[in-house]
Design goal:
The chain has 31 helices and 20 strands. With 714 residues, the protein is an alpha/beta fold. The chain has an eight-stranded mixed sheet, sandwiched between helices. A seven-stranded parallel sheet has the order 3-4-2-5-6-1-7, sandwiched between helices. Strand 15 and strand 16 form a beta hairpin. The structure holds adenosine-5'-triphosphate and magnesium ion.
Length: 714
């Protein structure tokens, strides 16, 4: 079917034609026939790269232009949200405005409503709903991308609840749920009152194979020889494609493994670069060295990148990850070794995907477990994206002991595991029960049962079991005085309401409350507050104590024991050990505010820059929450301490530099340089002539001018 025939407006037809899209892909046609443009709710399950985003754009256009209603686009990850934000923003030319919000949970999000399309992460939308924004009532279309994540242990419950609430709002809104990997489409469709649309069709043929000694066996019966080298099977298989002019994406199960694969492969890819590619790779390498702080990790990355390979994982600085993605897309990098987070919905070229490890560490059961079919499909689907390659291949490297053919059969023939609700998780039930009561004005158990009765959980385990789980959550929330009851109605206390708005786990809220209450006036609690947030269930990423950290952790705890908050001073050995377990996170945060360089955090504590930045963002939010609760419990001294600490964490500085870092363009490094040169306060800066400031190390004329402008406004 051509776009014109689908009654798509002419300007949109032109818009897509300019991108080389004029004919609809079969799953797109099927979705349109099922009523996508007539406002019907759909669950679309079609393979990776089969063009689900186009459906989202078409439906959004219609909703905004013809019905004057808003569109909410939900993405599970920030990177994916940014990619979709860019795609929707192209519709600005039609007068359709797009906005994005992926953080800052305590802000209301009211102003987002100025846009027509609002792109959010699932968590941010949950927080926006808790703030009861007024624009919610004008939403006419919810798009849930990568909806299989509803079955994810940690992130699933939030997605499940926001979709349930969207249904429950009574908006008569359309819902478009998208995924490449759902096998129980009918169940999902029934839950979401939607029509299932399912078609196993790919724009670019994908061949799946498995490595077996010195050849690849493909499902279509073909065999391909792979010359064996000392580099190992994953690299041998990946290089086969690189030598033919393609690019390879290698998935590894740990960061260390990704680094080692890329480092080894670089020796080979450097011989495959054309002069232009070599130039581009060196440019990428230089950009890595000149952006962000230099660490042994960034030096290694730069070295590998110059040779046409790269590794990609969450320990890298965001900016370095972006450089790697950009240059890989531009084909200057031939081989990318990544951890599986990269697999989630992002468009990257790969003629061949190599899955180097079919097992993954499983914290729940301890030890390695085989990956799921769903995970395999997500990774395999990165091969052969239509805008980059005309065919794709995925090759599994099986564990040495496993018979190859069986492996291939299992992963390519079995359907992905059905999506199972994870909402029964206690912490999820507590949070969402609290949020529901806190946004209502008097909620009965029947109200709760009616809402939770519409969840996927209720469909899968029954209303009775779901009712028992909310009962249990209510018990906790009443016991800890986050909720109170009058007659047969539940209300949130001021404390409960604040916890819900701050978007913290009720358990975190209770920990914060109990600790600040015991704080004594006139004492300093820097390490104690860092420990409090690091020990809370909301802190991530956690840095678990390694055996080599014990001595350092015990010494740290001893030195800082006067700063610990009373509740956490250890009485028994078990208590002491529990406190110690969080000490690596505490030491990392403490090192950060003591102005340790990223290299020091890496060499002393093994904390990688990407993780440190995430921990800092997270600590910023938790310290804000701690300060807000201290305010509520009338502990002004703790409010002040939490606020100062938050500013120190945000910039990574000692207390004496906090004032200087309020200036735009002055981070931890420049603030230290200014301070050392004798400019210690904003007043010092105001009095100093610009040319003297310009002489300070790392400052220079441009920055000096910029900071002078700011102080003269004070
Ligand atoms: N009808 C079409 N004709 C040509 N190209 C198309 C068509 N529809 C979509 N495409 C292109 O296909 C590519 C992949 O589409 P998209 O990102 O929407 O995949 P997806 O189905 O969301 O996959 P995933 O499950 O991996 O997220 C995009 O570059 C898009 O421009
Ligand atoms: Mg997609």
């Amino acid at each position: 079917m051509r776009l014109e025939e689908a009654s798509v407006p002419e300007e949109l037809v032109q818009f897509f034609r300019a991108k080389g899209i004029s004919e609809l892909y079969p799953p797109q046609e099927q979705a349109i026939r099922a009523g996508l443009l007539d406002g019907k709710s759909l669950v679309v399950a079609s393979p990776t790269a089969s063009g689900k985003t186009l459906l989202a754009l078409l439906a959004a256009y219609r909703k905004v232009k013809e019905q004057r209603r808003k569109v909410v686009y939900l993405a599970p990850l920030r990177a994916l949200a940014s990619e979709k934000y860019a795609e929707f923003s192209e519709m600005t030319r039609f007068g359709i405005y797009t906005n994005i919000s992926t953080g800052d949970y305590d802000s209301s999000g009211e102003s987002l409503g100025r846009a027509d399309v609002i792109v959010l992460t699932n968590e941010r939308f949950d927080s926006v709903m808790r703030h009861r924004v007024s624009w919610l009532n004008s939403v006419g279309l919810f798009i849930a991308d990568e909806v299989h994540l509803a079955g994810n242990d940690s992130r699933g419950p939030t997605l499940e609840m926001i979709l349930t609430k969207a249904l429950h709002l009574g908006l008569d809104a359309q819902l478009l749920a998208l995924s490449a990997t759902i096998s129980n489409v009918r169940t999902l469709a029934e839950w979401l009152h939607a029509i299932p649309v399912e078609l196993d069709w790919r724009p670019v043929p994908l061949r799946e194979g498995v490595y077996d000694y010195n050849r690849i066996l493909f499902t279509d019966g073909e065999e391909r020889q792979v010359p064996r080298s000392t580099y190992g099977a994953p690299i041998d298989v990946a290089m086969g494609t690189v030598k033919e002019g393609g690019q390879a994406l290698v998935f590894a199960n740990t960061r260390r493994r990704a680094v080692s694969l890329a480092t080894k492969a670089a020796e080979l890819t450097q011989r495959q670069l054309s002069p232009e590619e070599k130039k581009a790779a060196s440019e990428a390498s230089r950009r890595i060295l000149t952006s962000g702080e230099e660490t042994s990790l960034s030096r290694l990355l730069a070295e590998v990148v110059a040779k046409g390979s790269a590794f990609h994982h969450a320990g890298l600085e965001a900016e370095h990850r972006r450089i790697v993605e950009d240059y890989y897309r531009a084909r200057a990098l031939k081989l990318l070794a990544a951890t599986p987070t990269l697999a989630a919905g992002i468009n990257l070229p790969a003629r061949r995907v190599v899955i180097a490890d079919m097992t993954r560490y499983d914290a729940e059961h301890g030890g390695n477990a085989e990956i799921s079919v769903l995970e395999y499909r997500q990774m395999a689907g990165r091969a052969g994206r239509p805008q980059y390659d005309d065919h794709g291949e995925t090759v599994i490297i099986p564990p040495q002991s496993a018979p190859s053919a069986d492996f291939l059969e299992h992963y390519t023939k079995e359907p992905p595991e059905p999506i199972q609700s994870r909402l029964s998780d206690e912490s999820a039930m507590r949070s969402h029960t609290l949020a529901t009561v806190a946004t209502g004005s008097g909620t009965s158990k029947a109200d709760l049962d009616s809402l939770f009765g519409k969840t996927l959980l209720a469909m899968q385990v029954g209303a009775k079991e779901t009712g028992r789980l909310t009962e249990k959550a209510l018990g906790y929330l009443l016991g800890e005085r986050l909720l109170e009851s009058h007659g047969n109605l539940f209300y949130a206390t001021e404390f409960g309401r604040r916890v819900s708005m701050l978007y913290i786990d009720p358990v975190t809220g209770v920990m914060f409350r109990d600790s600040v209450r015991h704080a004594e006036p006139g004492r300093k609690y820097t390490a104690g507050m860092l420990h409090l947030i690091a020990a809370s269930p909301d802190f991530e990423p956690k840095f678990p104590l390694r055996s080599k950290d014990y001595d350092q952790a015990m010494a740290f705890l001893e030195e800082h024991s006067p700063e610990m908050l009373e509740r956490h001073t250890s009485r028994t050995f078990a208590d002491y050990d529990r406190v110690l377990q969080d000490m690596r996170s505490v030491m990392a945060l403490h090192g950060w505010i003591d102005e340790w360089r990223e290299e020091q955090l890496l060499s002393r504590l093994g904390v990688e820059p990407g993780d440190m930045h995430r921990a800092v963002d997270n600590a910023d939010w938790l310290l804000h929450s701690l300060g807000e609760l201290a305010k509520l419990f009338k502990m002004p001294e703790m409010v002040r301490q939490a606020e100062t600490l938050r500013m120190r964490v945000a910039s990574g500085v000692s207390e004496e530099l906090v004032e200087l870092t309020t200036l735009q363009g002055v981070g931890r490094v420049r603030a230290r340089a200014l301070y050392t040169a004798g400019f210690r306060t904003l007043e010092d800066i105001e009095e100093a002539p610009a040319d003297r400031l310009a002489l300070v190390d790392k400052v220079g004329a441009a920055v000096a001018k910029k900071i002078k402008e700011q102080v003269s406004k004070h």
